[in-house]
Amino acid sequence: MPELPEVQALVDFLTDRAVGRVVARVDVASISVLKTFDPPVTGLAGLEVSGATRHGKFLDLDVSGLHLVIHLARAGWLHWRDALPPVPPKPGKGPIALRVHLVAGEGDGKSGFDLTEAGTQKKLAAYLVRNPMEVPGIARLGPDPLDAAFTLDALRELVRTDRSQIKGLLRDQSKIAGIGNAYSDEILHAARLSPFKPAANLSDEETQSLYDAMREVLTDAVTRARGAGDLKAEKKLGMRVHGRAGQPCPVCGDTVRAVSFADSSLDYCATCQTGGKPLADRRLSKLLR
Ligand SMILES: [Zn+2]
To answer: In angstroms, what is the span from residue 210 Cα to ligand 1's centroid?
Structure first.
């Protein structure tokens, strides 16, 4: 799933390629992707793309005051096309869900982008709204971890009374926006914190480590994503523990372990993060009891 760094890279890319161009046409190949009906997507035709930005993991294309907001979810992706075919994609066939045709000027009618979704889980979502706050997922977003306003004190305030496990807090979009399963694993490893530790139990020193790790891991990932030819491959390459269970920890050499968490699993290093003690798999121990 694309998280803050990958979505930021897509924003930068679209700022470069799409801003200044005019929408020629939008093809909706999967009706379930489009979550809004007013204003209609046909209303985008003839309007200039004036900006691209991000709200957490949501991509927001400003088209002369209308906002095409995209949430890529687990299996969605955005593909830039220098040469789009004029024939619309067949509805319900293949991974293409939405296609946006852009023109730069007279005679140029071929570039644009496809929103695609692999697999059967249909979670990719697009919204056309007059104000991004009309998108429920954006309205309830917490602060952005790379925002200058998100200071160490702001994080202290956030964790102070929160009894949830720190792994859960980092992934909760209403508490901090843009971090998912992969970067929360990386941040906790860099901060040398147990993912199961209740947020409210963090010492001042640990909160400082968490803050520094969050800024460092995300800033570094954004920098790498910006220069990447393949965002997904670059994301995987930069991971120290996430997706690396069974491999040696690059910091201490201990074997990276996986343990179930919420709807999936998390990866961590026991030596770096839990004083050498492997975390008990609660789901498994429940079954064995
Ligand atoms: Zn380690």
So the answer is: 16
